[in-house]
């Protein structure tokens, strides 16, 4: 607590300071303590006395209305109570303090001359949890403007926007309402579909809150056109089977009505529709075609299609049974072709070998004829050989 200046009313200090020192017992003084309290709280206003000799003590409010006269209530305000009156300390208590109680409270001591001291009462007004105002709808591809408002505080609160642990700088404005202040902080951020549901917060800081803060949480509400996807069944659909399709729809706002139709035809009589689900029991080839799921909201429309092809079980069986026979026929044809090739090669090799044998046989007959002719002519072999060599 801060103490105001001590007033010494014995005599003017510049003239009779020595006299006060000599007659200390007759020099009286009063001290007042400054007080700071939260609005709605309780304030204790104290006046400390020195060398009190029974003189009149008066306590007045900031409007100079007398609250107590020597311990006796003078103003009819039950919020003020005298809690202590001694030769050393006079204390009053004010409950349910408001900003209009703020100001200087006078501790007056009446002797030959009237002197007073002022105890200043300061009232802090902590901010309430701030509010968030949205100027216009947040639409995919556009911007959203958000304003955080703290309508009443004293002194003015400090506002801060946060997203994912990071501060978003805002444009701050402040208005003086007389005893209190209103503060606002405005941000503009671009939004996409993925931002729908993103968490933001506005935090208010104030000396009256200490290390605490008042936080307003806000989730982005981003509007966007719907998307549609048909979830198809698994496997092959045959005659007699059942078809079940689910139309998965997203959008903001979520489309309420989902429309099923068949392109260039009407829906089958046995078709059953329950919201996003489309079913047909006992399928036949007459159900073949393209089915369409459509959805829309105020920001657009979307559609997806599914082409149904019902197979004949008999045709499927024949197709599957024909495959092994085709493979076997191909293998047999390959074997026959291989055998024919082997036969052709064998015959060709045999014919060629036989021709070579006949050629050697003819050459041997020629040599035998020459020898026989030489013998008949009476020439010896050596001569024939010699003549042959010449």
UniProtKB/TrEMBL annotation:
* InterPro entries found in the cross-reference section: CD80_C2-set (IPR013162), Ig-like_dom (IPR007110), Ig-like_dom_sf (IPR036179), Ig-like_fold (IPR013783), Ig_sub (IPR003599), Ig_sub2 (IPR003598), Neurexin-like (IPR003585)
- Family per record: Belongs to the nectin family.
GO annotation, cellular component aspect: cell-cell contact zone; membrane
Determine if Repeat is one of this entry's keywords.
Answer: yes
Where found? Membrane
Q: Biological process GO annotation list?
A: homophilic cell adhesion via plasma membrane adhesion molecules; regulation of Rac protein signal transduction; regulation of wound healing
Q: Where are the transmembrane segments?
A: 325-349
Q: Which UniProt keywords apply?
A: Disulfide bond, Immunoglobulin domain, Membrane, Repeat, Signal, Transmembrane, Transmembrane helix
Gene3D superfamilies the UniProt entry points to: Immunoglobulins
**Which organism was this protein described from?**
Seriola lalandi dorsalis
Q: Which CDD domains match?
A: IgI_2_Necl-4
Q: Which residues form the Ig-like domain?
A: 127-216, 226-309
Q: Does the keyword Nucleotide-binding apply?
A: no
Q: Provide the protein name.
A: Cell adhesion molecule 4
**Pfam families per the record?**
C2-set_2 (PF08205), Ig_3 (PF13927)
Q: Residues of the signal sequence?
A: 1-27
Which PANTHER family does its entry note? CELL ADHESION MOLECULE 4, IG-LIKE DOMAIN-CONTAINING PROTEIN
Q: How does it sit in the membrane?
A: Single-pass type I membrane protein
């Amino acid at each position: 607590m801060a103490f105001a200046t001590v007033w010494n009313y014995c005599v003017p200090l510049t003239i009779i300071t020595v006299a006060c020192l000599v007659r200390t017992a007759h020099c009286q003084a009063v001290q007042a303590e400054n007080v700071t309290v939260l609005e709605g709280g309780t304030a204790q206003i104290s006046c400390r006395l020195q060398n009190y000799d029974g003189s009149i003590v008066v306590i007045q409010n900031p409007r100079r209305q007398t609250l107590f006269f020597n311990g006796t209530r003078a103003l009819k305000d039950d919020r003020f109570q005298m809690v202590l009156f001694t030769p050393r300390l006079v204390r009053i208590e004010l409950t349910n303090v408001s900003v209009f109680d703020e100001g200087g409270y006078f501790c007056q001591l009446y002797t030959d001359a009237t002197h007073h001291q002022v105890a200043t009462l300061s009232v802090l007004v902590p901010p309430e949890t701030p509010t968030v105002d949205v100027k216009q709808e947040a639409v995919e591809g556009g911007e959203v403007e958000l304003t955080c408002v703290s309508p009443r505080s004293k002194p003015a609160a400090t506002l801060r926007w946060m997203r994912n642990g990071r501060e978003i700088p805002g444009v701050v404005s402040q208005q003086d309402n007389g005893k209190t202040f209103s503060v606002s902080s405005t941000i503009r951020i671009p939004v996409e579909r993925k931002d729908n549901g993103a968490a933001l917060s506005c935090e208010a800081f104030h000396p009256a809150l200490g290390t605490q803060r008042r936080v307003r949480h806000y989730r982005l509400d981003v509007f966007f056109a719907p998307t549609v996807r048909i979830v198809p069944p698994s496997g092959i659909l045959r005659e007699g089977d059942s078809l079940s399709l689910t139309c998965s729809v997203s959008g903001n706002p979520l489309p309420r009505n989902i429309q099923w139709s068949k392109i260039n035809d009407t829906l089958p009589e046995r078709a059953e529709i329950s919201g996003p689900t489309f079913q047909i029991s006992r399928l036949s080839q007459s159900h073949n075609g393209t089915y369409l799921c459509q959805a829309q909201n105020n920001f657009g429309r979307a559609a997806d299609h599914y082409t149904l092809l019902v197979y004949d079980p008999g045709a499927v069986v024949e197709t599957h049974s024909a495959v092994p026979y085709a493979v076997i026929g191909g293998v047999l044809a390959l074997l026959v072709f291989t055998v024919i090739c082997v036969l052709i090669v064998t015959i060709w090799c045999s014919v060629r070998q036989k021709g070579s044998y006949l050629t050697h046989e003819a050459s041997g007959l020629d040599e035998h004829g020459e020898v026989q002719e030489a013998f008949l002519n009476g020439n010896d072999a050596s001569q024939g050989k010699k003549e042959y060599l010449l």
